[in-house]
């Protein structure tokens, strides 16, 4: 997600996106252990997106 996209989100949408990304990360980890994941970079990208969204929430709450 780009910073511009994140700024347009409401608090509820941000929380929903975080939950969705956490589920995706969980599934990617299983795929990695089974050797089914096509591109391992998705794991890193998902982690970074979760961090971006959490940072954005903290900035809004401050």
Key traits:
62 residues; single chain; Helix Hairpins; 3 helices; mainly alpha; 0% strand; 81% helix
Query: How many runs of DSSP E, i.e. beta strands?
Result: 0
Helix content: over 70%
Low-confidence runs? none
- Binned strand content: under 5%
Give the helices and strands as they follow along the chain.
HHH
Number of spatially distinct domains: 1
CATH class, named Mainly Alpha
Radius of gyration, whole Å? 13 Å
* DSSP helical segment count: 3
What is the architecture at the second tier of CATH? Answer: Orthogonal Bundle
Give the oligomeric state of the chains in this entry, treating copies of one chain as homo and distinct chains as hetero: single chain
Architecture overview:
By secondary structure, the chain is an all-alpha fold. It has a single domain, classed as Helix Hairpins (Orthogonal Bundle). Helices cover 81% and strands 0% of the residues. The protein contains three helices and no strands. α2 packs antiparallel against α3. The protein is elongated.
Short structural summary:
With 62 residues, the chain is mostly helical. Helices cover 81% and strands 0% of the residues. It has helices spanning 3-7, 11-34, 41-61.
Itemize the secondary structure elements and their pairings.
Layout: H1 3-7, H2 11-34, H3 41-61
């Amino acid at each position: 997600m780009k910073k511009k996209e994140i700024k347009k989100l409401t608090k509820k949408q941000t929380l929903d996106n975080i939950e969705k990304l956490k589920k995706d990360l969980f599934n990617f980890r299983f795929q990695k252990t089974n050797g089914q994941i096509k591109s391992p970079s998705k794991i890193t990208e998902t982690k970074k997106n979760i961090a971006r969204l959490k940072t954005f929430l903290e900035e809004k709450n401050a």
